Amino acid sequence: MPDQEYAQGKVLIRAETNLPPCSIVVHPEFSSLIIFGTYKLEEESRKRHGTLEFWLRVTSDDDKESLIRVAELATPDSSILDAKLHPTDHNILLTAQSTGEIVIWRFAGLRAWAETVHAELLQHANNGETKNERKFDLPEHTKSADVITENEDRSVLVLSLCFAPVSPYNTLAATLTDGSIVVCVLTNSGIKVRHRLTGAHSLEAWTASFLNGSENVLFSGGDDAVLAAHDLRMASSSDSDNNESDNGYGDDIVAPVWSSQRIHSAGVTSIHSFIPTPDYQLWTGGYDDTLALVDLRITDPMLPIPPRGPTASINLGGGVWKLLPSPVAPESRMLVCCMYGGARIVDRLSTEEIASTTEPANIVASLTQGHESMVYGGAWLDEKTVVTCSFYDKAVQVWRW
């Protein structure tokens, strides 16, 4: 990491999940509700299982803070590797499963339920009654699962999910352990596969991210250290919805527009685009501990010319697993999950600053204390407060800096 001064985060609350957590969802309209997706592989049987754990953050009138587990949903036959709320309908939660499925959870009044439970917990806290777990019935909900792997192969894991940032926000991409990326549409009846991107990665496809403002341009990163750009309009049919194969799948897109192994020296694990902005920056993170910047003014994502290398980069002291922009702080601020390096808060630099420093960001704060395992999950609670989770030690921590 660069030799500079930055703040050390302060742990406000520490808790422990029942199973190892690898993803975090914070309700956008009620940030006291925090949901953890968990993953457990039983060593003897080699079977996987997981849970969704529902927690509430409670601050009493005397400013004592606590995290309280209030409910749990089990997935006894598969683990959860990622979880995402629908961008606009916050009663719909999608989870990526270890059995090649995307599970759709539909809740009736999730926010209202959380607010009601929170009010009861606050009353207990103000009366001095402190517990880290109180069980409540979840609101009415349904669960449906759709296998998205080729030939319904249950040995392939769904690793990550991302929604296209375009209304009505029903297009999403899922990355798989076989190296493919599946572009799907969320419908009232379930998940419909639209495209299968098969030619970019020879190893696990760890991550994917749509170009900001587009549902046609997609970037992906894999364990083979490849960063790839895809144009979904390159399908063999211009109308895949009306030209599906007999198995219900849309067209395969074998070749990416471009791919490059010049950005990272190890697997590409996270991607985020700051586009459209005057900077046209694509941020990527990898197992090489590096946060890299690709300037797409130089490399047009629609031209078959791969970037020659990163425009700027910074070593964050741990594998850059997730890039999580703040929905409440300045747009330039990012929470970065750095695996064994803990987490970082970074600020994106301007084009002029990058030119003089050759780094894409400044480190604002380091969040390392108390995490003894890989930090895979994180989320923003407010402008100065975040929550992170680490895997094997099952640690959950709320930070302020």
UniProtKB/TrEMBL annotation:
UniProt repeat feature WD, residue ranges: 368-401
UniProt keyword annotations, A-Z: Hydrolase, Repeat, WD repeat
GO annotations of cellular component type: cytoplasm
Gene Ontology molecular function: any one: diphthine methylesterase activity
SUPFAM superfamilies: WD40 repeat-like
Annotated GO biological process: protein histidyl modification to diphthamide
Name of the protein: methylated diphthine methylhydrolase
Keyword Hydrolase: yes
Taxonomic source organism: Magnusiomyces paraingens
UniProt cross-references to PROSITE patterns, sorted A to Z: WD_REPEATS_2 (PS50082), WD_REPEATS_REGION (PS50294)
Enzyme class: hydrolase
Pathway: Protein modification; peptidyl-diphthamide biosynthesis
InterPro entries: Diphthine_MTase (IPR052415), WD40/YVTN_repeat-like_dom_sf (IPR015943), WD40_repeat_dom_sf (IPR036322), WD40_rpt (IPR001680)
The enzyme's E.C. designation: 3.1.1.97
Catalytic activity field: diphthine methyl ester-[translation elongation factor 2] + H2O = diphthine-[translation elongation factor 2] + methanol + H(+)
Protein family per UniProt: Belongs to the DPH7 family.
